[in-house]
Please model this.
Amino acid sequence: MTYTVKNHGDIIEEEAAELISERFPQYELVWQSYIGNKGNNTIAELPNYPYEDKRKNFAENSYTVLESVFIIDQILKSKIFERTIKNQSTNFMKREVSLYMEKKYP
Model:
């Protein structure tokens, strides 16, 4: 079975599937062969792989990079940097996080 972030990833991976495909395709290639996700936030099985602790750490570290790339992409798409700064950055982040969470967890 070939895992894909769009069909088997967690909520952020599914949301970022297009971004991954267009700008970060290596993430999915590595994810497919080394990490995977059963679609329920459970790491896929990798039979006969003796270093599960290293695999778990690698998965967590690469996911952190993906989260950062995704958040940066969302900030850039929001065009926040085209606005005048008047203490808006803190309010913007609070609002964006709140809207994202409401959208995903109504």
User: Anything to note?
Assistant: The mean pLDDT is 82. The two ends are 32 Å apart (CA to CA). Residues 5-78 form one domain. Residues 52-78 form the longest helix (27 residues).
